[in-house]
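G., the chain you wanted modeled:
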Amino acid sequence: LKRSLILLGIVTLVTAWFSALFYHPDEHYQILEFMGWKLGITPVSEMPWEFSFHIRPWLQPLFYYVIAKPLILLGVKDMFTIVFLLRLVTGALSLTALASFARALLSTIEGEDERRSFVRYLPLFGFLPYLFVRTSSETLSGALFAIGLSLTIGERPLRRLALAGFFCGLAFECRYQIAFMGLGLFAWLAVVARTRSGGLAVFLGGGVCAVLLGALANRWGYGAWVFPPYNYFHANIVEGVAAKQFGSEPVFAFLYLMPAQIFFA
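Predicted structure as C-alpha cells:
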C-alpha cells in the first residue's frame, strides 16, 4: 500500500505542476476568485453573482488564503506559482484521504490475493491525480468526507466518531450537497452499525462544531453574519437563479452526464 501511494503521490505532484487551467470554471471563479478578492487582487465588480447572493461557503477560500497570504508577504508575486502550491496542497490532502480510506478498507478485505490486488491496482486509476489537484469544492469536500468515512470503519470509540462527524461537517462547509452523503453515513451508523445513541450524539456534535467553524469563515468572508446554505437553497431551488442563467436538465440526464465526466469523451 505504501509503495502504491508513493507512486500515486509522484504522479499527483507532476499533475499539479502541469494543470495550469481548471477542469470546471467553478474551481476558479467560486474558489480562487473569492480568495483573490480577500487578497485585494480581484475587484468586487469582477466577482460572480453568487458573491452578492451570499450563497457560497468561505471555508475553502479561507483555507487557501491562509496559504497564499504568507507567500505574498514573503515576496511570491506570481499567482501561477501560488495556485500551483494550492493545487499541490489540495493533492496532498486528497492523497492523505485516500490513504486513510484505503488503510481502513484494507482491514475488511478477506483473502491475501484480494488484498494484494487492491493495493496493486490502486495507483492505476489515472483520473485520480487529475481530480486530486483540482481546487474545486467537490475535491476538497470529497477528501474531507473520505477521512470522516474512514474513521467509522472498524472500531468506533467516541473520539473517532467525534472526529468523523467533524470531518463530515467540514465537507459540508465546503460543498452543501454532500449533506446527503453525511445523512447516509449517519443512517448507516444508526441502522446497520447499530451505534448507540451516545455515539450518534457525539458524531452530530462533531458536525455541529465544524458548522460553527464554517459560520466564522462566512463571517470573515462576507463581513456579516449570514447563513449561506439557506441562501443557496432559496436562490437556486426556490428562485431558480442558476437554472434561468444556465438552463436545466431532466432527471434522466444523469445517464449521459455521468459517463461524460469520467473521461469517456
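The CA atoms of residues 254 and 260 lie 10 Å apart.

Shout if anything looks off.
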